[in-house]
Amino acid sequence: MKRKAMEALIQWKESEERKPMVLKGARQVGKTWLMKAFGETCYSRCAYFNFDEDTSLSSIFETNKEPQRLVELLSMIAGKKIEPQKTLLIFDEIQECPVALNALKYFKEKANEYHVIAAGSLLGTLLARPKSYPVGMVNLLTLSPLTFDEFLEAVDPALFAYYVSIRKEQPMEQIFHNRLLEAYHHYLIIGGMPECVASWVKYKDPGRIAQIQRELIAVYENDFSKHNGKVNSGRILMVFRSIVAQLAKPNEKFMYGAVREGGRAREFEEAIEWLVSAGMLHRVSNVSKMEHPLAAFEKQGQFKLFVFDTGLLKQMAGVDNQAILLRSDYQFKGPLTENYILQQLHGQFEAAPRYYAEKDKEIDFILQYGTEIIPVEVKGGEKKAAPSFKQYIVDHRPKYALRFSERGYRKDGYITNLPLYLARKTRELL
Predict the structure, then answer these.
(1) What is the domain range of residue 94?
(2) DSSP character string of 127-145
């Protein structure tokens, strides 16, 4: 299974400005696999240490801050010499040892010839607190579930080769459009969690996928219950379990009262921030104006929350596979499609996607591309653009206007229709 993040790690290895790398992302997205695969592929050897499996490792970092001494001790534990530039030093589950996380700054200051990479579950919640990690002394890389293109390469390399060949305004053959649309529907069901994708490649059994997804959701909810920080674990769980109902509402705006009757922002805002920092949810803010820069017009109290993996959201919502495969107009089709689009847009543009909602007007997503503002309409089927989307285009004549749907790749006046399966190539096709 290939991950695009591997390219980023190779660039990091070769960079003269390299700092210790901190890999963050939700649990089970493949951080450990990626670090080990990177070490095995790009280094003579790797030295792997897991702070969750071996709690005694913490004592080394509690009593030593000098990198050379740390390397000597770690070499003894690993039973192999840790050499500069030849050995990848891996610290897994580093959130279990905050002093080890802090020690990364000493590697940057005094021993940057050693290549160090660290990762951990819920590490994002630590990094959200500046005092918890060495600010400016580490490189950060976020690992997410497999995107559609990564999924396609894993399940159908030949079709992926055609997908890669698609260029801007290139006419697409109907046979490939149909095959890619089928792969997209499979992705809605399977999602991008590495275990789910690997299972599908090996067994092609939807029942196995559903079981893995149920187990993953149970693992996450158990993590919430074990959380003993300042954020109430019960409220974290309540927010997470409310997401399906939140997305099913007509305007999808997050409502605290939908978490618990009479709920208020002060009760749940920290739980939301914890879930976002942990990589479990994506926050998309409403803006008062669709102008550059979008960040200047955010409405802080108005936002939508999306799940980090569409396959898990499908499972949480209880959407039947048949409804997806038969392309039925099931109740949750719109929210599931929007979640998918957001997942694919994530990280393509420097500015995070926003949305616009004012009275009876709404634009599903807004992208910032340089100084250009791009309105985005998302359709789960083949329906044409909504009136508010059309009106915005008439009024503003934007350079780019995108509609994602099951229709083919084409230009409709000022609107470019991108098939849903091309969402990951959005920036490339502008």
Answers:
(1) 5-142
(2) HTSGGGS-TTSSEEEE--S
**What's the total number of domains in the chain?**
2
CA distance 126 to 130: 8
| One domain for residues 110 and 212 | no
Q: Between the CA of residue 255 and those of 251, 263, 307, 358, what are the distances in Å?
A: 10, 8, 16, 16
DSSP letter assigned to residue 250: S
Structure tokens, 238: 């309540």
Block means of pLDDT (10 residues each) for the chain, length 430 residues?
A: 96 96 95 98 97 93 95 96 97 93 94 96 71 81 97 98 96 96 98 98 98 97 81 94 94 91 93 94 96 95 97 98 92 96 96 93 96 96 79 92 95 92 97
pTM over 0.85: yes
Strands 115-119 and 87-92: parallel
| Rounded Cα gap, residues 185 and 188, in angstroms | 5
- Asked whether residue 305 falls in the same domain as residue 415, the answer is yes
129 and 183 housed in the same domain = no
Q: Is 78 exposed, middle or buried (0-12, 13-18, 19+ CB in 10 A)?
A: middle
